[in-house]
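STRUCTURE:
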């Protein structure tokens, strides 16, 4: 015979398991309740039999008849008592244990079937015993005369059938209560199973385990960060990429996101205080694109994309475009100069042609030579030379302060180029179309001080902290990338190295950014320089 298979669905397993448990608990409870009830009924029957026996033993007429062995009188009185009390039998014996009364008159004159000695010795006895009338609850007492002499025994029995009838009457109520409890438990189990069926989408238990394994592999295998938050903003799940991008501690699960992230735009986006799609945010030196989607349980799922490399490529593209435009303008200017030179030669003004060539070639060489003399680090010098050319094509004079000096001892040239390049770009944007930008560099031991000042409109004092927030900008964002990230990234880079950045009013009438970078220079190389 083929045994039925255990159901695979979660709700079916729950329904079957809970039904079995409910039936078992109900049966055990009913059994545990019936056991003491049966014992209590036996005890009550024995006490009732004892009470009838004691009342019978106080009848002096029965005692005198028993002493005189007048069985007819004893039988008549005993039967009256039996009928009046509903007892199964009332047996009176003499001192030898010979019956003087019995329900069956044919047994009078015979010795009782149970031991009469305890009662004849003066003790009252209760017991459940088997006799000629079957199993009964018995009470036995000594039969005494008025002067206290023991002249026999009185034994009263309550039939076991009457006890069982009482138990059956109580059993009906007990079973009804048990049935009601079983029905309620079954209904509750069915309701719970139906709810679980809806919540689990009727999925099999084995599939849940497989889905969990697949989910873990998917979450930790994708190259995008993913964070799940509950309705209180606590971290429920964070995959490996999210931990890396956000720099979350190992014990972040179960903690509010505001505890594991510093205050700022990134925390505001994750908690939903800032809404939108593809929101840019900065974490340390990384540019992240964040999307937040609310879930049915009032929680949220947040996805994170690392845009740092793309942002760097976009910035390089912007620089390349600017250089291309600068080269195109220089080519046009060079053509004009060549035409001028050709005209001077055709007019026979050779001395003026020589002077014109010397003047044009010397101006660019002087600028490049001054930068190389003051800035020994090749990366920063190249940045300043390129930015000077681009700024010139945009009608902006980018100057290096006369006292500026930077030795070839920069610890992290890439970070310094990022900081200085962003500050110069912002300054050039502020004065585009005609203005001046001045850059100052100074070394104090291992600390580097740099300033970028412009002649633009400046920044109002109440907005000088807000300009460092991610996403804040006073310009229209281009189509290929969002604005409002450069200064935020600069501030994070500076603060990560233990430095500080300050924005105030500069000597040129516009804004001035002052950056202090401790441990940015190698002191041994600085001494050699």
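SEQUENCE:
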């Amino acid at each position: 015979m083929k045994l039925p298979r255990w159901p695979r669905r979660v709700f079916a397993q729950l329904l079957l398991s809970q039904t079995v448990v409910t039936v078992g608990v109900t049966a055990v409870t009913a059994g545990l309740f019936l056991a003491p009830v049966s014992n209590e009924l036996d005890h009550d029957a024995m006490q009732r039999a004892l009470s009838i026996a004691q009342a019978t033993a106080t009848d002096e007429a029965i005692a005198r008849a028993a002493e005189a062995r007048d069985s007819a009188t004893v039988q008549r009185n005993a039967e009256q008592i039996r009928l009046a009390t509903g007892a199964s039998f009332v047996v009176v014996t003499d001192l030898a244990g010979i019956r003087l009364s019995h329900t069956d008159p044919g047994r009078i004159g015979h010795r009782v079937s149970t031991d009469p000695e305890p009662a004849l010795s003066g003790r009252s006895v209760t017991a459940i015993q088997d006799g000629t009338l079957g199993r009964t609850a018995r009470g036995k007492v000594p039969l005494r005369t008025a002067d206290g002499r023991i002249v026999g025994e009185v034994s009263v029995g309550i039939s076991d059938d009457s006890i069982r009838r009482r138990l059956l009457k109580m059993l009906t109520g007990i079973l009804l209560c048990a049935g009601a409890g079983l029905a309620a438990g079954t209904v509750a189990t069915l309701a719970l199973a139906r709810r679980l069926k809806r919540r689990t989408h009727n999925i099999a238990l084995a599939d849940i385990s497989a889905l969990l394994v697949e989910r873990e592999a998917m979450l930790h295998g994708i190259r995008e960060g993913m964070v799940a938050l509950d309705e209180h903003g606590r971290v429920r799940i964070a995959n490996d990429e999210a931990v890396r991008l956000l720099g979350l501690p190992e014990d972040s699960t179960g903690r509010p996101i505001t505890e594991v992230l510093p205050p700022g735009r990134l925390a505001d986006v994750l908690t939903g205080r800032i809404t939108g799609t593809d929101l840019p945010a900065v974490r340390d030196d990384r540019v992240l694109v964040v999307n937040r989607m609310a879930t049915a349980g009032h929680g949220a799922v947040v996805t994170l994309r690392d845009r740092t490399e793309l942002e760097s490529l976009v910035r390089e593209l912007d620089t390349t475009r600017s250089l291309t435009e600068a080269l195109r303008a220089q080519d046009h200017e060079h053509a004009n100069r060549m035409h001028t030179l050709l005209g001077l030669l055709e007019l026979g003004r050779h001395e003026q042609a020589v002077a014109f060539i010397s003047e044009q070639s010397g101006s660019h060489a002087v600028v490049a030579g001054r930068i190389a003399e003051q800035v020994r680090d090749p990366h920063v010098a190249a940045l300043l030379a390129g930015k000077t050319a681009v700024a010139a094509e945009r009608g902006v004079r980018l100057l290096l302060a006369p006292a500026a000096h930077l030795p070839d001892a920069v610890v992290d040239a890439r970070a310094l180029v990022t900081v200085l390049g962003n500050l110069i770009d912002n300054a050039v944007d502020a004065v585009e179309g005609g203005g001046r930008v001045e850059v100052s560099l100074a070394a104090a031991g291992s600390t580097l001080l740099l300033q970028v000042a412009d002649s633009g409109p400046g920044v109002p004092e109440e907005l000088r902290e807000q300009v460092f927030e991610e996403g804040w900008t006073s310009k229209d964002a281009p189509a290929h990338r969002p604005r409002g990230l450069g200064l935020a990234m600069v501030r994070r880079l500076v603060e990560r190295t233990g430095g500080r950045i300050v924005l105030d009013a500069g000597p040129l009438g516009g804004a001035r950014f002052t950056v202090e970078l401790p441990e940015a220079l190698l002191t041994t190389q600085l001494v050699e320089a």
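REMARK: The mean pLDDT is 78.
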